[in-house]
Write a structure and sequence with these properties.
single chain, alpha+beta, Rieske Iron-sulfur Protein, 2 domains, six-stranded antiparallel beta sheet, 1 helix, elongated, binds FE2/S2 (inorganic) cluster
Length: 158
């Protein structure tokens, strides 16, 4: 009986060492997968998460929007994207995305020329409608609805 026990002891040690090697290799593999996989997951998930966050924003209240002088624009964030509220000389309002439809630079209002201008490649847009007028932008700027409510300007998805 004691011989059996003695004969089995080296086998048990070998099994234990083998198990520990496999467990260590598994833990190392899991750590490596986490180190590599998490950044890949974040890279792939970020656009989806951003789109979800962007879609969750339905309107933005601009507390001081009415203070925007005529023939000027107030830049603001609609969700995570830049946008602009334009107060026209006739007193009307327009709210547009400021994300250029060419390559995504931030466009701004040019009061001297009364156009929206993208400094990256010279894209031009109509400040009343967001229609692309010149340069490389292939599409109009996205337009938002504007209403005045309780002395504040409320911009919402069109
Ligand atoms: S990114 Fe605006 S014109 Fe190219």
């Amino acid at each position: 009986m004691s011989d059996e026990t003695q004969n089995n002891a080296p086998v048990d040690d070998a099994d234990r060492r083998g198990f520990l090697k496999i467990a260590a290799a598994g833990a190392l593999g899991a750590a490596y997968a986490g180190m590599v996989g998490y950044p890949v997951y974040r890279y792939l998930a970020s656009p989806i998460e951003k789109a979800a966050a962007e879609g969750a924003v339905k309107e933005v209240v601009l507390d001081h929007g009415l203070d925007t002088p005529k023939n000027s624009a107030l830049m603001f964030q609609f969700g995570q994207k830049p946008a602009m509220l334009i107060h026209h000389e006739d007193g009307s309002w327009t709210a547009l995305s400021a994300v250029c439809t060419h390559l995504g630079c931030t466009a701004g209002y040019d009061a001297a020329k009364k156009i929206i201008y993208c400094p990256c490649h010279g894209g031009q847009y109509d400040p009343h409608s967001g229609a692309n007028l010149g340069g490389p932008p292939p599409k109009p700027l996205a337009e938002y609805k504007v209403r005045v409510d309780g002395g504040k300007v409320v911009v919402s998805r069109a």
